Amino acid sequence: MSASARIGFMQGRLSPLVDNRIQVFPWSQWRDEYPLAELCGLGLMEWTLDQERLYENPLMTPDGRAEIAALGEKFGVTVPSLTGDCFMQAPFWKAVDSERASLEQEFLAVADACAVSDIATVVVPLVDNGRLETRAQEDALVVFLERHAGFLAERGVRVVFESDFAPQELARFIARLDPARFGINYDIGNSAALGFDPVEELSAYGRRVVNVHVKDRLRGGTTVPLGTGSADFETVFRELARAGFAGLCVLQTARASRNDHAGVLCRYRDMTAGWLAQYPVHRHVA
Q1: What is the 3-state secondary structure (H, E, C) of the chain?
Q2: pTM recorded for the entire structure
Q3: I need a surface site. Which of 39, 104, 263, 285 has the fewest CB within 10 A?
């Protein structure tokens, strides 16, 4: 697979900001992103799903899924992954009793909808409101996922976690779960903001990375244009290649200041393609 063929974009990055939020499902313009993606040469999109109006999202309805498929075929855009912001906004591992049971059923419903639409990777953000704060919360998450690993396997869905755990702690957590069905989403910008060393991170758990979010952030600060923050992209892509990562890199980048969303995204695509080409994947031999 060529470097450019491994690069996708986060849904919404080709649309204007909604209520000044950097990431939200673009209700009024989600269809418009397909022709824009085709013009940009971006054939991969990562879907976004919010807790608000969850079951109204096109992914969660038969008619909506049919429209997603038709648009994808018309404009050459596939959706291989989904970021479940809904799970961060309403984490079942922090709920109790009937609320937990209801949120767990929502998780399974999302996984099922993904399977129907051939979305193989579901990103679960264990950050912000979804952060694992106690061992009891972690156990609740792990026990639920282990119980439903067969359900996920039957549907061909892999769950990957984005976390603010330090490297060794994240390695410990992911080791609790079967690598055939569970992995890590590595967020370059978030790690840079936390001051983590990418060599230490990817030495600890690089073989479990399934998906990568490409963005830049200032240490302790917010998202900024690629190359202007604290992320060491050359080291990151070198270490990802060394770990054998051959998956998708999703542009979850800073928004354009003058609404030139497509132009900015194309520039970030080219930057990312350059890093991927510079550091080809190391093939590990068993």
Answers
A1: CCCHHHEEEECCCCCCCECCECCCCCCCCCCCHHHHHHHHCCCEEEEECCCCCHHHCHHHCHHHHHHHHHHHHHHCCEEEEEECHHHHHCCHHHCCHHHHHHHHHHHHHHHHHHHHCCCCEEEEEECHHHCCCCHHHHHHHHHHHHHCHHHHHHHCCEEEEEECCCHHHHHHHHCCCCCCCEEEEEEHHHHHHHCCCHHHHHHHHHHHEEEEEECEECCCCCEECCCCCCCCHHHHHHHHHHCCCCCEEEECCCCCCCCCHHHHHHHHHHHHHHHHHHCCCCCCCC
A2: 0.95
A3: 285
